[in-house]
Write a structure and sequence with these properties.
Length: 306
């Protein structure tokens, strides 16, 4: 049989699940050509060896696969010819596959925006698939105006946080956001929003009150009107109705009064007999005023008895 491969048995490029071995050919083939090498490994706490693989006689390197992370191993190599196996060349120290610590992968997207308001926008994301072999220490959140080149730091949050409300934005300005994961080695590639988001109120003014604006009673110095609530409150409850009037010869509307949101009629007093008037009603929510609902035509203030 051949002599053992010439050492030392060098072990390099150890990862979390593999190790590279290299050796020198046997000095004596035993009179019969060497046909290959057998590679084995053994867990330090066990007595039996496991075959890892074989290579031909011209190859003196081998990558041992399928190792278990944080487990100590021994390795050995046999030379083989037609007569049998040589004595083994064994590693002198144990080898423990350990993952190389790297920066984390970027957070999982999409980076969503929601709860959009005039000066604030909320964002959310998911944790990276890979922490790089070291626990995350946090996330860095950045923003920039869509038409600007440079990013501005917003906050650093704990690794357990995967949403954040970005405040102090400019109304009607479009923003981009990005989030970077951090571990003790460094920063991941950033996860960025797919599109710019405008900071604006998620509510709108209501639609105009539902018509028609009916005339329900006519007197010499008063006219009663009636309306219905808007079909759309703009996402914010109606808080009042503004009632206005205008003489047909006037150019400006004048305020009559404001009534609460549960009131849908009003008697407009203080009119002049035999004068024609137009009326309109405006719905109000916290965002602002609706477009007005107006009477279809002018109404003459007069006695109902002629």
């Amino acid at each position: 049989v051949p002599s053992a491969p010439v050492g030392p048995l060098e072990i390099t490029n150890v990862t979390n699940n593999s190790a590279d071995l290299s050796w020198k050919p046997s000095a004596n083939d035993g009179g019969t050509p060497i046909t290959g090498y057998i590679i084995e490994h053994r867990v330090d706490s066990r007595t039996f060896w496991t075959k890892a693989g074989t290579v031909n006689e011209k190859t003196t390197t081998f990558t041992v696969p399928n190792l278990t992370e944080d487990t100590s191993y021994h390795f050995r190599v046999f030379a083989v010819n037609a007569e049998g196996q040589s004595k083994p060349l064994e590693s002198t120290d144990v080898t423990k596959p350990v993952r190389k610590i790297e920066k984390p992968s970027k957070p999982i997207g999409p980076l969503k925006t929601y709860d959009i308001e005039k000066t604030s926008i909320s964002i959310s994301w998911k944790a990276p698939e890979d922490d790089g072999g070291s626990p995350l220490t946090g996330y860095i959140i950045e923003k920039k105006e869509a038409n600007r080149q440079y990013w501005n730091n917003v906050a650093k949050v704990a690794p357990s946080v995967t949403n954040y409300r970005v405040e102090d934005l400019r109304q009607n300005c479009e923003y981009d956001f990005r989030v970077t994961a951090i571990n003790k080695i460094g920063h991941s590639d950033p996860l960025q929003t797919d599109a710019s988001t405008m900071a604006k109120s998620s509510f709108t003014v209501p639609s105009c009150p539902t018509g028609p604006l009916d005339i329900t009673d006519v007197q010499r110095t008063s006219i009663s009107i009636k309306w219905k609530a808007p079909k759309d409150d703009g996402g914010s409850p109606i808080i009042a109705y503004n009632v206005e009037k205008k003489h047909t010869k006037a150019h400006i509307w004048s305020r009559v009064d404001q009534v609460d949101a549960s009131t849908y009629e009003m008697c407009v007093k203080g009119l002049y007999e035999k004068n024609e008037y137009l009326f309109r009603v405006i719905a109000v929510n916290k965002i602002g005023q609706s477009s007005p609902l107006e009477t279809d035509g002018a109404t003459l203030a007069r006695s109902p008895f002629g």
